[in-house]
């Protein structure tokens, strides 16, 4: 048997083993109603902290991180992962208790309860859907396909591999719901972490742990104003970005909302935060820096090339399976959360309040997957995929975070004021991206957040005649959740 055939056999065996273990684990669970929102999108509230941590970790850690961050070939990008610790702590201590007290299926459901309007919920959900379907889903399968080609040198069209990822990832989401997604994430996550750390060690050994000859600006954690992450952005928008991503983003928080209790969910988030600080930073920067010393500035091909050159041939099939697991995890997580937002936030609120959840989710997923595949060639033209993704996040992240902040911290704010502020924030940041960016985009995200908060409160007072009352997070408790139960469903 040829070496390539052995690698393919190992690849198929590992992915097949993960699928089989996932199937056994999921079929062994008691399900109250396989077609209910809670069962399909929140695994019936049955995820233990281990699966919460595993799914959060692998949903975030995929080829857009491994390929994109290593593609910058500098230490600075580790700051994104280190700052993520703050976002996870805010999720655990601030947002999770509120989500659980209000019995939310989606993060945007909290907005409906706070503003007493389904329209603000629908707007924010639509924005999340847009960024998922048109930005992150195609980016994940594109970077996954790119990595497979770079690492293995396989003679296959990039679109063919991307389509394969899309189909398999969608199958997990449609057939098993969040339970299958989270379980496969956890088992695949162990494999990805192990292989990713092995690549770090092999990379360091390849240069004898000698970083001489690498420019100092690629080895520092204190970036100047011309770097991707200037040091002063840590004082403005960086932590707001992390709070948005980890605490309000349905793709991430959906896992934490699927535990039986808030304490179990918090344990999972703490474990994910520990993994993020201890293991992830080295995985997303060291191989890229070593690749710079070995090959020069080769951008997004750095990770795939160094893995292909340094990994023993007998392990390449296992590593390819690990990367495939990471791609499938991120993709099926996004697809499942997108379906949840469409079904719960849009279809049930405006079209049919009692649909067949499994069938409707399958139809929505099919549409989302087709769009993602069509968008793959667009991302193939990007110079740096990770920088592009972070900039595009700014279109929705700060307006949405401002909407959550006003809703949670203030009482007596008209939903129309919040909607106006969100739309204005999106348009304003679009101008920053495509017309005039006076400061670094992270600074402008910081400005966008506070402008949106101020605008919502101002419009609420001057246009709708309401005086907002600051209540702080301490007032968003049991009583608020109880009073909202009497709110009309529409």
Describe this structure in words.
By secondary structure, this protein is mainly α. The chain contains 20 helices and two strands. The protein has helices spanning 3-27, 37-42, 49-60, 63-72, 78-101, 107-115, 118-152, 158-206, 238-247, 250-256, 262-278, 280-295, 302-310, 313-350, 357-379, 385-393, 397-409, 415-434, 441-462, 478-483, and strands at residues 410-411, 469-470. The protein has a two-stranded antiparallel sheet. Helix 18 runs antiparallel to helix 19.
Structural descriptors:
1% strand, mainly alpha, 490 residues, disordered C terminus, 2 domains, Sodium/glucose cotransporter, 20 helices, globular, two-stranded antiparallel ribbon
Topology:
Blueprint: H1 3-27, H2 37-42, H3 49-60, H4 63-72, H5 78-101, H6 107-115, H7 118-152, H8 158-206, H9 238-247, H10 250-256, H11 262-278, H12 280-295, H13 302-310, H14 313-350, H15 357-379, H16 385-393, H17 397-409, E1 410-411, H18 415-434, H19 441-462, E2 469-470, H20 478-483
Antiparallel strand pairs: 1-2
Helix pairs in contact: 1-8, 1-14, 3-8, 3-10, 3-11, 3-14, 4-7, 4-12, 5-9, 5-11, 5-12, 6-7, 6-17, 7-8, 7-13, 7-14, 7-15, 7-16, 7-18, 8-12, 8-14, 8-15, 9-17, 10-14, 12-13, 14-15, 17-18, 17-19, 18-19
């Amino acid at each position: 048997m040829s070496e390539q055939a052995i690698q393919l056999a190992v690849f198929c065996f590992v992915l097949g083993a993960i699928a089989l273990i996932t199937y056994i684990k999921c079929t062994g669970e008691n399900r109250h109603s396989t077609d209910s929102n809670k069962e399909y999108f929140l695994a019936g509230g049955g995820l233990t902290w281990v699966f919460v941590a595993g799914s959060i970790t692998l949903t975030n850690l995929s080829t857009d991180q491994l390929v994109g961050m290593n593609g910058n070939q500098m230490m600075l990008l580790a700051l994104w992962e280190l700052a993520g610790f703050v976002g996870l702590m805010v999720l655990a201590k601030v947002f999770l208790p509120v989500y659980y007290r209000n019995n939310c299926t989606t993060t945007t459901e909290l907005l409906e309860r706070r503003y007493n309007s389904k329209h603000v919920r629908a707007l924010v959900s639509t924005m999340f859907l847009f960024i998922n379907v048109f930005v992150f889903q195609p980016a994940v399968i594109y970077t996954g396909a790119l990595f497979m080609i770079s690492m293995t040198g396989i003679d296959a069209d990039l679109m063919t591999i991307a389509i394969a990822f899309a189909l398999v990832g969608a199958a997990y989401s449609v057939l098993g719901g969040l339970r299958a997604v989270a379980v496969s994430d956890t088992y695949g996550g162990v494999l990805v972490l192990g292989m990713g750390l092995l690549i770090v060690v092999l990379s360091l050994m390849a240069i004898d742990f000698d970083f001489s000859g690498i420019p100092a600006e690629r080895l520092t954690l204190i970036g100047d104003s011309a770097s991707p992450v200037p040091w002063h952005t840590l004082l403005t928008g960086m932590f707001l970005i992390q709070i948005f991503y980890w605490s309000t983003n349905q793709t991430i928080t959906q896992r934490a909302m699927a535990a039986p209790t808030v304490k179990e969910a918090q344990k999972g988030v703490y474990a994910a935060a520990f993994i993020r600080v201890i293991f992830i930073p080295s995985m997303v920067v060291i191989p890229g820096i070593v690749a710079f010393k070995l090959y020069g500035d080769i951008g997004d091909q750095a990770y795939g090339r160094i893995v292909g050159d340094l990994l023993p041939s007998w392990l390449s099939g296992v590593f390819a399976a690990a990367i495939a697991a990471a791609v499938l995890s991120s993709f099926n997580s996004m697809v499942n959360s997108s379906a949840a937002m469409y079904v719960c936030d849009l279809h049930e609120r405006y079209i049919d309040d009692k649909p067949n959840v499994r069938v409707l989710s399958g139809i929505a997923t099919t549409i989302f997957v087709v769009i993602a595949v069509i968008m793959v060639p667009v991302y193939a033209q990007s110079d740096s995929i990770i920088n592009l993704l972070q900039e595009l996040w700014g279109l929705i992240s700060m307006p949405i975070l401002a909407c959550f902040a006003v809703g949670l911290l203030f009482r007596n704010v008209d939903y129309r004021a919040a909607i106006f502020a969100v739309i204005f924030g999106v348009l304003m940041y679009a101008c920053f991206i495509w017309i005039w960016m006076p400061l670094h985009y992270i600074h402008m995200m910081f400005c966008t957040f506070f402008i949106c908060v101020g605008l919502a409160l101002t419009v609420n007072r001057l246009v709708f005649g309401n005086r907002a009352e600051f209540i702080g997070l301490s007032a968003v408790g049991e009583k608020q959740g109880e009073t909202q139960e009497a709110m009309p469903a529409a």
